[in-house]
Amino acid sequence: MPSDDKLFLELFEPAKEEIYRIAYLYLKNEEDAKDVLQETAYRCFKSFGRLRKREYFKTWAIKTAINCSIDILKQRSRVLPLDETVPLESLASPSSEHETEDRLLLEKLMDKLDGREKAAVILKYLYGLKLREIAKALNLPLGTVKSILYRAMNKLEKESDLL
Amino acid sequence: MKDKLEKALGMISLPPDLDMEVEKGIDRAISERRRISVTKSRSVLKIAAAAFALVIVAAAGFGIYRLNKTPAIPDDDILQFMGYKTGTMEPVVVELSADGNIIGKVDADEVVLSDENGDPVEPDMVVMMMTYWLDENGDLQCTDIPFGAYLVSAGTSDGGTYKLKGFNSDDFGDRVTFSPAQSYLKSAQDGTAYDVKEGELDISLEKLPDGSMQFVYNPSDVSEYPYSEITEYHFDSVMGFESAPEYLGGGSGLNPTEEGITVRGSVGVPELLGGSMPGGSGSQLRLDDNLRGEGCYWEFTPDDNILKIVGAESEVEGWVKISSIEAKLKDGSRLELHGNWIVKVES
Predict the structure, then answer these.
(1) Cβ neighbours for A16, distance < 8 A, ≥ 6 positions apart
(2) Which residues of B touch A (CB under 8 A)?
(3) CB-based contact (8 Å) between A56 and chain B?
(4) Are B11 and A102 a contacting pair at CB < 8 A?
(5) Most CB contacts within 10 A, which of A73, A160, B176, B247?
């Protein structure tokens, strides 16, 4: 196995679960999320040689996964309505008050935010990307990202004290 | 917030077979990589070589106007052109087989163009993407130019804005966007062509107040690619025209110069005809439905970059598509070319 391929596997392995979960956040079902994981592995492997800074691998892979998820949503036109309930069987049952809050946040992420809002929240708060970097990743003007993020946070904060 | 998001995401259960999905994705990429490594250089060279044929046709035009009677056919299947490498005037031999394949030196799956000594030659400029072949009558035919086929030589990696000369029509609207799907960037380091995925490279043509167009790309995107200098951008499609022409057929090679990038031949025809090609009064053009007129002729000057068809009637103004040119030249010889070009109608 070429050394680059081996390195790719080493870097992708610890990221795969997060990729799956983020894909699930978008697509809300296991099969589609697994498809995104496969597609992300495919796209990242193909483009790995172009990635100059390997320390950014995980963020790069997550951005790719988000784009894959959005692509699949577009292709399949299977955006679920806002009041669609999250499939319970795929989510762990909350066993404490804290977990109930986590669960509520997750459901809001899934159901209240559109694709770009999810991406902006994930990239900013989970991966610490700067707004300019998010704008680049999502191919959006900086001002648009700011307003998307503002709107997303409003949605998440509404009717609860989650954040 | 990070902590809360991590915990929230952690609520999503993981299926047991994630590794299998990763393996499938990688397997797909590996099998595709093997396939591409065989075909990529071929397709790139084929495009380049086909373009060469076009340049060579123009160069050879001094002595060979009647292209539907092939100038040199080594055997029944192969048409051979002796021409000159764009820019350097270095002699190049291009052979075309009856099925449209470019034949130079054929080495396994890779097609290599060779010069008159048999040494491999890699073209430094592609002017137009076309495929030529000989039909059953031995006539030279060529494909229509693919929709918006473009090959742009940039020769720089620092990004920036380049002014395109030759796009001086209001008909192009305010913005033209290249869709980089199935496109590639070509590395100056090793000549490798890298695929460009949509969204990875922000490239657009924007109209300036003076009516000319400028070519813009995002330097930070370009820096993602692992080479110091990009020599070529190739785009398979051009989208976003707001008005006529309905599409931009044809392709243009763009020359990096001290002033920026100069469109070679605007949309093909002037380059094809060349500045020294005998045009002028007396030449005849046979045009498709967009243009009509017997006895019309073209005027072309090297600095103009726009082919003027004088005496033709047209129901449209500005840039129009023509699909064939049949010209009777002053010395009585005849030039016939097929393909799609955009020409500007002068009223």
Answers:
(1) A37, A41, B18, B19, B22
(2) 1-2, 4-15, 17-19, 21-26, 28-30, 32-33, 194-195, 197, 199, 202, 220-221, 223-226
(3) no
(4) yes
(5) B176
Domain boundaries, chain A: 1-80, 96-163
pLDDT single digits (tens) A46-100? 888 777 677 778 888 988 898 888 877 776 654 444 334 444 445 555 566 666 7
Residue B231 phi/psi, 5-degree rounding, is: -100, -30
Chosen CATH of A1-80 out of 3.40.50.1370, 1.20.1740.10, 1.10.1740.10, 1.10.760.10: 1.10.1740.10
Distance CA A3, CA B209 (A): 52
d(CA B34, nearest CA chain A) in Å: 11
**CATH number corresponding to A96-163:** 1.10.10.10
Sort strands B91-97 and B78-84 into parallel, antiparallel or unpaired: antiparallel
- Closest to B274 measured CA to CA, from B296, B302, B251: B302
Q: Where are chain B's structural domains?
A: 43-142, 150-264, 274-345
Between helix A142-157 and helix A131-138 the angle, nearest 10°, is 100
Which pLDDT tens digit goes with each residue over B42-74? 222 222 333 333 332 322 222 111 122 222 233
- Those of residues 22-51 in A touching chain B at CB distance below 8 A are 22, 24-25, 30, 34-35, 37-43, 45-47, 49-51
